[in-house]
Write a structure and sequence with these properties.
The complex is a heterodimer. Chain A has 3 helices and no strands. By secondary structure, chain A is an all-alpha fold. Chain B is mainly alpha-helical. Chain B has 2 domains: 104 residues, no CATH class; 214 residues, no CATH class. Chain B is built from 9 helices and 8 strands. Chain B has a 3-stranded antiparallel sheet with strand order 4-3-8, with no helix packed on it. A 3-stranded antiparallel sheet of chain B has the order 5-6-7, with no helix packed on it. In chain B, strands 1-2 form a two-stranded antiparallel ribbon. In chain B, a hairpin with a 6-residue loop joins β1 and β2. The chains are: A mainly alpha, B mainly alpha. Chains A and B meet through α1 and α2 of A and β8, α3, α4, α5 and α6 of B.
Chain lengths: 166, 363
């Protein structure tokens, strides 16, 4: 210890402190600050770049998810549209069918009515003709019958008979 | 990293070789001169050499021969405050052999310290062989200060060019930045944030980064052939520790002081007993920082040099390579210790800052 104290040189101590403090300040200005700043900046840059990449990845994922959702929605919409179209088609067809049926029925009914009317007319015509024919025949018959007296009497009798029966 | 390690290992090898070659030459000469008690002399000389190396010096000696006096020494400026500023070159001391005269004052070097003397250069030693002469206030640019300056300038150049390379390449490090950026991030993510917390760590980052690289580089400088033992000097580690202490104390929040003077959650007599202990603890913490770094670096240098010195004591074909190999392995270990001590100092500083910056009450 005594030797240490006797070896202690104040001049060396003074120069060491002075030079070292000066060195710290000079290096702070000339070296450490720029070096640490450059390193920090670089590290910040790397960190930011990584963060940005991560964000981009997330955004990409979101976009993909969106795309899928939109696609799904579009598909669903298409399906409903198709379904509606099919229903509409079927409705139209059914309606058309019904209308056609009604129309057809009407035509048939009209035809039937016409046929009936024609038939009635024909029947009454035939009836008239039959009556005329009958009258003609009856006239001829009556004429022939009435040419003979016996036959006249017989006829009258028969007629009378009929009358009584009926 | 691999390449840098290779370069460091090579420079270590160079250190080991230069020292051994120089000393080998020196000792063989000596052995021829006096054969009888050469081993005792050699041991004493080695001890003195190691001690001299571990101490700070007023001149920067690259190599020097004691016999011829030849060598290569860079004189450094001596700055003294002795009734006025005294500035002169350390070459006036002639490696401590002569008395330096400046403006009518006389100075003498004794064990790397400057004492004021008269014109004869007489030192009055007390019973512990400590001079009692007056010591002028010594602010000299010593070898260690040169080391500190070299590392400071190197760090300024290195890290400001690193900062510029970020600006040039859109925030991406190139070249050396590839090596140093992970270290900067390690200090931020593994030392500062876990110990101080996400909220406050930023204000301490400048200090933590500077102290980590400073201690590491200056430890490595001590392992180069220059052999500047800066962190093995108590004044340097004291300066670093006191900075940590001051920052801890002056950035401390209410919670920190409350935990020292009035520890919550325990009975009041215990609080009174704990308060001085805790207060003492605040000084012990930086003190341990100071001693740990100092002792580790000092021990590393001492052991490394002692093992190298074994070459000259054994003087055999077995002992030489053996101690060389041992020194080589130890140098590699010292490389690890250099970074480990820097890490521990930074880590513990961060831990103390963390306790100072803590705000929440969770006890």
């Amino acid at each position: 210890m005594e030797q240490l104290i006797s070896e202690f040189s104040f001049g060396l101590f003074f120069w060491q402190v002075a030079i070292f403090i000066l060195l710290v300040f000079l290096l702070k200005k000339m070296a450490w600050k720029p070096i640490l700043n450059a390193v920090n900046e670089r590290e910040e840059g790397i960190k930011n770049a990584l963060e940005e990449a991560e964000n981009a990845r997330k955004e990409m994922q979101n976009l993909n998810a969106d795309n899928e959702r939109i696609l799904k929605e579009a598909r669903a919409q298409r399906d409903t549209l198709l379904k509606e179209a099919r229903e509409m088609k079927e409705g139209i067809i059914a309606e058309a069918k019904g209308e056609a049926q009604i129309q057809a029925n009407k035509v048939v009914e009209q035809a039937q009515a016409t046929i009936q009317a024609e038939k009635n007319a024909a029947i009454s015509d035939i009836k008239n003709q039959v009556a005329e024919l009958s009258i003609g025949i009856a006239e001829k018959v009556v004429r022939g019958e009435l040419s003979d007296k016996n036959k006249q009497i017989k006829l009258v009798e028969e007629m009378l008979k009929e009358v009584t029966i009926s | 990293m691999y390449r840098i390690n290779i370069i460091k290992t090579l420079s270590l090898l160079f250190l080991v070789m230069t020292i051994s070659v120089n000393a080998q030459h020196e000792t063989t000469q000596k052995v021829h001169e006096e054969n009888s008690d050469s081993t005792v002399d050699l041991r004493a000389e080695i001890k003195a050499d190691i001690k001299h190396h571990l101490l700070d010096s007023h001149e920067f000696t690259l190599f020097h021969s004691k016999e011829t006096g030849a060598g290569f020494t860079i004189p450094l400026p001596i700055i003294l405050w002795d009734g006025g500023l005294q500035v002169f070159s350390s070459s006036k001391f002639h490696h401590g052999e002569e008395i330096a005269e400046n403006n009518g004052n006389y100075y003498k070097l004794h064990h790397s310290k400057i004492y004021k003397t008269n014109a004869d250069g007489a030192l009055n030693l007390d019973e512990h062989h400590h001079p009692t002469n007056a010591k002028p206030f010594d602010l000299s640019i010593t070898k260690s200060v040169v080391g500190i300056l070299i590392i400071a300038i190197f760090m300024l150049w290195l890290f400001s060019s690193l900062a510029k390379s970020y600006a040039k390449n859109n925030g991406i490090a190139t070249g050396m930045g590839r090596f140093f950026e992970p270290l900067v991030l390690f200090i931020r993510d593994e030392i500062a944030i876990p110990n101080i917390g996400e909220k406050h760590y930023k204000r301490y980052m400048n200090y933590l980064l500077t102290i980590f690289f400073f201690i590491w580089f200056i430890n490595l400088l001590g392992l180069t052939p220059l052999g500047v033992n800066v962190t093995g000097n108590i004044a340097v580690t004291f300066a670093l520790a006191i900075l940590t202490y001051l920052i801890t104390t002056f950035t401390a929040k209410k919670t920190y002081w409350k935990h020292i003077f009035w520890m919550p959650g325990i009975p009041w007599p215990m609080k009174i007993i704990l308060a001085p202990i805790e207060l003492f603890g605040t000084f012990i913490k930086p003190f341990s920082l100071m001693i740990r770094l100092y002792a580790n670096m000092l021990a590393g240098h001492t052991v490394l040099m002692s093992i190298l010195a074994l070459i000259f004591i054994f003087k055999s074909w077995i002992g030489g390579p053996l101690s060389f190999g041992l020194a080589f392995v130890l140098s590699i270990l010292e490389l690890l210790v250099a970074v480990l001590q820097a890490y521990i100092f930074t880590m513990l500083s961060a831990l103390y800052f963390g306790s100072a910056a803590e705000e929440h009450e969770d006890h």
